[in-house]
Each structure stands twice: as C-alpha cells, then as structure tokens.
Design goal:
With about 180 residues, the chain is mainly α. The chain has 2 domains: about 1-90 and about 150-178, no CATH class; about 90-120. It has helices at about 5-85, 90-120, 130-135, 135-160, 160-175. The longest helix is centred in the first third of the chain and has 80 residues, at about 5-85. It is rod-shaped and about 125 Å long.
C-alpha cells in the first residue's frame, strides 16, 4: 500500500478528494441556509413591526372616531334639550333626562357586571409552554433567537474565505437548490 501507483491507493485518494468536495458542498449549503434564515428573520421582524404599527394606528383612529360620535350625539342631545326648554316643554325634558339616566346606569351596570364575571373566571390551564410564560415573552425570546442566529450567520460568512464563497456561488448558480 506504500506504492503511490497502487490502484487501491489511487482509489483511496479519489475517495478522499470526493469526501472533501462533498464536505465543502455541505458546508456551503449550511452557509446558504444560514444566510436564508437571516434574511427570513429580518423580514419577519420587519413585518411584525409593521403589523403592530398598523394595529396601533387602527386603534387610535377607532378611538378618535368613537369619541367624535359621542361628542356629536351629546351636542345633538344638548341642542334638543335646549330647544325643548325654549318651547316650555319641561315635561319632555324630564322624560329625556330619565331615559338618559336609565341608559347610562344600565350601561355602567352591565359593564361592571361583565368586569366582575371576567375577574372571577379563571383561565383554563394550558400545557403549551408559550401560554405559561406569556405570549409577549415568547415573542421577545423568538426575536432574540432570530437575532442571535443572524449574528452567527454573519460571523460564519466573515470567517469563510473568498474561494469557498466563489465555489459556493458557482454551485448555487449552476444547480438550483429547490
């Protein structure tokens, strides 16, 4: 086996060369996977940020519209009461005020009853860990994990030499991954 012209020795060297090429290809594929994961995580964080921003804007506009509707109805009611007082319809004003009082007390009472019932009901326990630690905590952990993965991908790309990158790009451009 010490003879360099021995066919077994040549087969061994060919196998070693093929093994090195397959390892290099595998490493390049891992690097591409890390790059793709980094891009995906960045896009995911951007999409989540945009979604939350739009949700806040929607809540703000809904709150503003509801406030304007309440202000308009209050102004309209005040104008109706003033007009009724101008026409000396005191009994009509008293009936308006009674109706308003009943509606407001019923609304406040119903809201209070619902709040008390919601506090007394305990949520069903879940076995899923994301519900145990809270959804916001899970989102924070996921974002930290994605940032850490992106950092590792950047470090791996910085450590690899240009020859590996060039071969990887040639391999990727020659043969589609999907």
């Amino acid at each position: 086996m010490s003879d360099p012209q021995d066919p077994r020795w040549l087969d061994f060297l060919d196998n070693q060369a093929n093994d090195l090429i397959s390892r290099q290809t595998e490493q390049e594929l891992r690097k591409r996977e890390l790059e793709t994961t980094h891009e995906y995580s960045v896009r995911l964080l951007d999409a989540e940020f945009l979604d939350r921003q739009r949700e806040r804007e929607h809540q703000r506009s809904t709150s503003f519209n509801a406030s304007m509707l309440i202000a308009f109805l209050s102004l309209l009611l005040a104008a109706g009461i003033c007009y009724a007082l101008y026409l000396n319809k005191d009994q009509l004003v008293m009936e308006f005020l009674k109706a308003i009082l009943f509606i407001v007390t019923g609304g406040v009472g119903g809201y209070s009853l619902k709040a008390v019932r919601d506090k007394s009901e305990t949520p069903k326990p879940s076995t899923h860990p994301s519900f145990e630690v809270g959804l916001d905590t899970c989102r924070i952990r996921r974002a930290r994990g994605l940032r850490m993965l992106a950092t590792r991908a950047r470090e791996f790309l910085a450590q690899s030499d240009s020859r590996v990158r060039d071969r990887f790009l040639f391999f990727v451009n020659r043969r589609p991954l999907c």
